[in-house]
Every structure is written in C-alpha cells, then in structure tokens.
Amino acid sequence: MLNRILFKDLTLYDKDIITTYTLHSKYRNCDLSFSNLCSWRFLYHTKFAIINGFLVFKFWLSDNKLAYMQPLGEGNLKELCDILAADAYLEGKPFLMLGICPDMKNQLENRLPGKLVFTCKRDYSDYIYLHEDLVALKGKKYQPKRNHINKFKKEYNYEYVPITSVLFGCSHRFQRFPQVPKCVLNN
Fold it and tell me: Mind telling me which InterPro entries this protein's record contains (predicted)?
C-alpha cells in the first residue's frame, strides 16, 4: 500500500528549515533561493517535505503538471526517487523533476541507470550576466534589451523616487492593481 507524503505549504516561517538545506548545498540554482521560493509559491502552489534526510519541493506548473524540484540533502537517492514517483502516481501524474543541476544529473544517472530521461529546456535554465555588461549594454547581443529600454523611456512618464513607508504600502497593493483605481501619495 502506498502512503501519501505530507507536504507542507511553504511560508516565511519555514526559512530556517529550508535554508538549513539550501545554504549548505553544493548545488547552485536560482530556484533554490528562499526569496524566489516565497515569491513564486502562490503561482506554483509550492509545498515541501523532509523525506529521509532530503528537502523536497513539490509544485504545480501552469498546465496542471506536477513537478518536484531537485532534492537537497544526504541519503538514498534511488529510494527517494521511488518515493516521489509513488507520490506522483497517487496524484495521477507522471513523475517529473525540474531544476536538475549537472552534478545531480550525474548522481541520478549513476543510481538509476537507464530509468530516467533528461531533457534540457533553455527557458528553464539559469543565466548570469556580468555587472559591466548590464551597465553598458554594448554589442549586438544586448540590442533587444536596449530596444526595450528605449521603448519604455519613450512610452512612459517615469521617475526615480526614494522608497518611503508610503510607497512601500502602495507596492503591497500593486498585486491587486486591477481593482485599485489609483495609489495616491501624500507627502
């Protein structure tokens, strides 16, 4: 008989337990940043569980696909994958894992030879820019970014202002922007 795993909704109060795994992990992935996890949890209905020494994130993609983030921790990786595959089966979904770093891919291939199919999707890959490149935006590579910035400057009346408690309060209402007619600032 298969048992359901009790995954917990991710909250700000879970930072200590999450960062115990993420900050000490040898894997680097922007999706493992606690800030990113919290920012995207509403869209992906992110949940987590500690399973046999591993931190596991479970989430739902926009097309109702179930996915698990690459696990973090120490233990029997093959056994963990069997547990997660069973959990996916109980959800009526195929087993799908995202955010697999090259080292984790090697571990999975060694422990589960021929059992998994790996697909690299560039849209899900991390990307890194050098600070100097973003400041200057020189060259053909950055032409689309320059075009986007120029279009923004041409179409919008914008200004830089210091962040105050009033502005900070307005930013929290931004999420309800379609229902909020105007955010009025009183200086």
Answer: Acyl_CoA_acyltransferase (IPR016181), LPG_synthase_C (IPR024320), UCP018688 (IPR016732)
In this predicted structure, the answer to whether residue 101 has a pLDDT above a threshold of 90 is no
Q: What pTM value is reported for the model? A: 0.68
Residue-wise pLDDT for 54-67, tens only, equals 999 999 998 899 99
Secondary structure element (H or E) that encloses residue 60, with its range: strand 54-60
- Domains of the chain (ranges; CATH) run 8-124 (3.40.630.30), 131-179 (no CATH)
CA distance 45 to 15: 17
Q: How many CA atoms lie within 13 A of 70 on its CB side?
A: 21
Count how many Cα atoms sit within 13 Å of the Cα of residue 157 in the half-sphere of its side chain.
0
In this prediction, residue 186 carries a pLDDT of 45
Residues contacting residue 183 through CB under 8 Å, at least 6 positions apart:
170, 173, 174
Query: Which helix or strand (DSSP H or E) is residue 48 part of?
Result: strand 47-51
How far is CA 90 from each of CA 9, 66, 72, rounded to the nearest angstrom? Answer: 19, 11, 23
* Mean pLDDT across 122-129: 70
